[in-house]
Prior knowledge:
It comes from Penicillium coprophilum. It holds the Pfam family Glyoxalase_3. It is built from seven helices and 17 strands. The protein is α+β, with helices and mostly antiparallel strands. Helix 3 runs antiparallel to helix 6.
Amino acid sequence: MGSIGMISRIxxxxxxxxxxxxxxxxxxxxxxxTIIEGGKHTGQASxxxxxxxxxxxxxxxxxxxxxxPEGHTWGTKSPGLIDWSISSMSTQTPAxxxxxxxxxxxxxxxxxxxxxxSFPEPTGQGRTTPEGLKLHWTRANPDxxxxxxxxxxxxxxxxxxxxxxxxxxxxxxxxxxxxxDPARVTHPCGxxxxxxxxxxxxxSHMNNYSRLLSSIIGSPPSTAEGQPGCMFTLxxxxxxxxxxxxxxxxxxxxxxxxxxxxxxxxxxxxxxxxKGREGHGEELLGKDGSATHVSLVW
Length: 298
């Protein structure tokens, strides 16, 4: 399937690393992926490494090298899978796409699912590569406030982060990521791109979060066949590479409940497409820690 008719695509997924993990990535990362040094961000004490895929998506391996800015939504998070972002397809400019997001959230009552989510205007961001190249993009992190359907604070044990952010290319994406370079996008595990981001929310608020994501993404969900919850379809940066999905569901078992208790509402699992394997299957990248929340699917 292609991306015809979609107005939003996945941009990237963020995995927070501790200082030790950033200096020496754990085997579940280093043995499976080609890891690129990304440099330091402009204007804040953070740095990144990149895992770039042939479909134009990437994993941001993020680390604070000093005190996070006050109020930053990632500043209180513990290492692991923490966030994901969307962007515009080629059929819209970033400004047009963001205007649509804002209108859908704000123009109609309950556009945010009455959860208390809005977005400020995107602002310029940047990083300097180890080679000294300055790269730019714009992004908007969600603003949160209490509203009639905001979940209990127990679902935000490390701070509220129950909405994706929006991120738009400034420097050309190919210049920034070089996903046309086989040396950067060939990985030992065979991963070629993002297949699915799985998001867990309280069952009591499924309808609210479905409405919120519908407004942000710009399209309604479909039924998750044979599974609880619902599915949203997103395009990919390389638009002829197909599409990916966001699987939204409530807690299904004790493991999901424990995730909500300890990590809070947000991404639970990242699934990556892999080539070169027969049949259909799924394999976790490890047996403990963050590795149990990233898998390969074929």
